[in-house]
């Protein structure tokens, strides 16, 4: 086996191993908890985000898909009208209630924009 074939074989083996050693995100997971969640899981391969959704006094934490991190997707899945949510992309990042997106100001802004448009 010549040197170039050996290098190609080595690169092939490294690339093959890299594809099989994927990174799995870890997220907190609790349903309708009045307290901060302490349970965490390793997410499925297709779940590449952590979610925290907050209803008045209850919070739900789970693994989620980035493509579903929209107000409409979250509202449809949880059948909710007024809530705040957070999608994040690091291990165990959905514990902090810090920067949650609220649907109430979004709704008020939409109504105000429509009202201003027709004045």
TrEMBL record:
Q: Which Gene3D superfamilies match?
A: CD59
The UniProt entry lists the main location of this chain as membrane
GO cellular-component term (any):
extracellular region
Q: What is its subcellular localisation?
A: Membrane; Secreted
Kindly give the membrane topology term recorded for this protein: Lipid-anchor; GPI-anchor
**Pfam families annotated for this entry?**
CD59 (PF25152)
Q: InterPro entries, alphabetically?
A: CD59, CD59_antigen_CS, LY6_UPA_recep-like, Snake_toxin-like_sf
Chain coiled-coil ranges: none
Keyword entries, A-Z? Disulfide bond, Glycoprotein, GPI-anchor, Lipoprotein, Membrane, Secreted, Signal
Secreted as a keyword? yes
Where is the UPAR/Ly6 domain positioned along the sequence? 25-107
Kindly indicate where the leader peptide sits in this chain.
1-24
SUPFAM superfamilies assigned to the protein according to its UniProt record, in alphabetical order: Snake toxin-like (SSF57302)
The record describes its quaternary structure and partners as: Interacts with T-cell surface antigen CD2.
Q: What is this protein called?
A: CD59 glycoprotein
Question: What is the species listed in this Swiss-Prot or TrEMBL entry?
Answer: Phrynocephalus forsythii
Q: What is the lineage of its organism?
A: Eukaryota, Metazoa, Chordata, Craniata, Vertebrata
């Amino acid at each position: 086996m010549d040197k170039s074939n050996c290098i190609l074989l080595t690169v092939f083996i490294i690339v093959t191993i890299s594809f099989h050693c994927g990174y799995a995100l870890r997220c907190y997971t609790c349903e309708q908890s009045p307290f901060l969640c302490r349970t965490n899981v390793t997410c499925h391969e297709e779940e590449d985000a952590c979610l925290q959704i907050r209803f008045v006094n209850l919070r739900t934490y789970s693994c989620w898909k980035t493509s579903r991190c929209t107000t409409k997707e979250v509202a449809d899945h949880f059948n909710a009208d007024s809530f705040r949510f957070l999608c994040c992309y690091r291990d165990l990042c959905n514990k902090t209630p810090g920067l949650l997106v609220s649907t109430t100001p979004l709704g008020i802004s939409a109504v105000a924009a429509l009202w201003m448009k027709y004045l």
